[in-house]
UniProtKB/TrEMBL annotation:
Keywords: Coiled coil. The keyword Coiled coil applies. It comes from Euplotes crassus. Residues 14-52 form a coiled coil. This is Uncharacterized protein.
Amino acid sequence: NHLQAEFHKVQLQLQKEKNLRLRADEEVSRLNKQHEDEKKNLALNIKTKIQNHYERKVMNVGIMYKKEMNHLNKQFRDLRIDLMGAEYLIGKIFGMFKDQETLLSYIRTR
């Protein structure tokens, strides 16, 4: 009878240890999954930050390009206006003289 009680005690102890091992395995599994999720989230955050950084850079370059193009277009417009003014003045000057010979003699006397 004493042997049976001892055997029963050992069986209970084994069952407790088995349950503990099971719970430990479950906890390890849960922690591993949590760790994997954290790694995925971290990777996603890093990817998003890099993406946002380069999107901002591209946007800034686009804005600078647009500003530069506007500036160049304005300069080009100003040059065209200057050229039209010069053409108008040249036309006026040539109109003052009957022919090329008169213009050349006028230039020589200056």
